[in-house]
Amino acid sequence: MGRVAAHGGGAGGRVTITEIARQAGVSVPTVSRVVNGRSDVSPGTRARVEELLRRHGYRKRPAASPSRAALLDLVFNDLDSPWAVEIIRGVEEAAHGAGAGTVVSAIHGRSGDAREWMRNLRARASDGVVLVTSALEPTLHEELRILGVPLVVVDPAGSPALDVPTIGAANWSGGMAATGHLLSLGHRRIGMITGPARLLCSRARLDGYRAALEGSGIALDESLVVPGDFRPESGFAGCTTLLELPDPPTAVFAAGDRMALGAIEALRGRGLRVPQDMSVVGFDDLPEVRWSAPPLTTVRQPLADMGKLAVRTVLRLTRDEQPDSPRVELGTDLVVRASTAAPAGHRLS
Amino acid sequence: MGRVAAHGGGAGGRVTITEIARQAGVSVPTVSRVVNGRSDVSPGTRARVEELLRRHGYRKRPAASPSRAALLDLVFNDLDSPWAVEIIRGVEEAAHGAGAGTVVSAIHGRSGDAREWMRNLRARASDGVVLVTSALEPTLHEELRILGVPLVVVDPAGSPALDVPTIGAANWSGGMAATGHLLSLGHRRIGMITGPARLLCSRARLDGYRAALEGSGIALDESLVVPGDFRPESGFAGCTTLLELPDPPTAVFAAGDRMALGAIEALRGRGLRVPQDMSVVGFDDLPEVRWSAPPLTTVRQPLADMGKLAVRTVLRLTRDEQPDSPRVELGTDLVVRASTAAPAGHRLS
């Protein structure tokens, strides 16, 4: 793929590929064909597009040389969770090891912020992008592709574009391990607080929970599955809903640690003890849940390792090498601490 | 001050100002005088230093122009605390608002990592540096000064160099507010778990605690002050020490939230309830302590705002403007939640 960037380039920093396509009166894929030197473009169209690219400061990016300072862009939707710092730590460490700087941005799910980020990315001639759990608009995906800046997605938020490598965690296996742990302690009524339905990771964790119940011959009770959005508030609300059922569960699996903390707070507020009155399992193993009260049993998601692998993958792409696999899942581990125990009155046989 | 940078510059990226001074057989300040065009250097020395600067790829940095993509470097010692993400959030937001990218690095307190970071900073021609709670070696300070890259320190770890602006929090007032809150609830024996003695912020919080006690006419009992290092483990150990005193306190002020979480875990492990058996106050107001069990009373340190102000200050310096003050402290606020109450058996009169 051709590598094109607007280095510096005053006015060039203000115009997108989409805008160039508009001004040339052609489609974005046509601009892409011109950039990539393909023959299936008419000479007139080619000349018009090339003139616009030149005028707006797009030009072939020089091949990577030791004289240029490498930069990788790490893009979050929001920087509002201790979750983020684990990924930053992994990305910074791997990028630093490769002599590259890590530029951290948040685009707040706003298309204006995303487009401004793209302009800045072009101006600083970034070498690659690691995108965390947030969907870019298709036009920005296309622009990165045309610029020849490789993209890797960590923990995809939905169906990723087919040609983008993704790094995830083994969410299904993690959901199955969390639920299996509760089953092995003797729990039979196990509630689940899910993540947002639009995220694939939420669906995979829920399916792992279902698979574990099925494997133990327990019919799924849909009333035990309540929605959450990963924020502690939703864990509080979800646990409250479960406690108000006519026949509440004896254990709850929260699909994220912060929801587990909210659930524990809901139990504490009602004078219920963890794990004597209710077992709680989380998902993530954020650094602070080792110090929740009680220390949280959870599924460790290797966030820093996911960040490191994303960097190694994006660096391979900058050298025009292919990743080992377009879709990698790193293993999750159950970490048993003090928030889970056998249900009250249960004898392990 | 002259602005000098090694843009790209193969071999130039590998040699420090100190090394240039060594090769020229002069002092680092002499190299600085040459760079800054001062007249108090002999012509022979000037020629020798200029030749070395040229050979190693140092050259006058072009004046900031709209065509160059601005970059700010945000440097941590370690990226291992949710504390970090709050500062990153503030810095990214302010930098983004000014059209600058934020390059995040960790130097792990290792001089090798710090020097490598400096080489990369030069190669990417960064516009300014925000340094968080970590002391740079004097030679690196000097190198930044010679490069003309402005530096602002957030929450200084010790006595900062006199010509570096620092952004801190009102640590003394915060320590006083935390202790005053416990006094107002009726506590008279109040323990404190301090931060590392080498950090100024630790000293200021401890002095605030002492001032509040003194203001209430309570003599300081030195056995109630135990050392910590901001990690939860040290809060656990410190609280354990306090509980083993012949006459333990009825409340404890931990100089950091993560130590407060460790203290709560030590209490829970002994079957003691918070706040019925012991009140606990933290310091920071990290996002997750709203969801600790119980929700933590703490002193809010405006970490994101401190990051924003650091960016505004460093940007002023890039324009050769002076900061409002070389040393700014942002206010802290007491946030009362559920981990504090009157001591057992106490009647508020």
Automatic annotation (TrEMBL), chains A, B:
UniProt entry tagged with the keyword Cytoplasm: no
Presence of the UniProt keyword Lyase in the record: no
Annotated keywords: DNA-binding, Transcription, Transcription regulation
Ranges where the HTH lacI-type domain occurs: 15-69
Molecular-function GO term, any one: DNA binding
Source taxon at top rank: Bacteria
Residue ranges of coiled coil: none
InterPro entries the record matches: HTH_LacI, LacI/GalR-like_sensor, Lambda_DNA-bd_dom_sf, Peripla_BP_I
Pfam family, one: Peripla_BP_3
Name of the protein in its database record: LacI family DNA-binding transcriptional regulator
Organism: Streptomyces edwardsiae
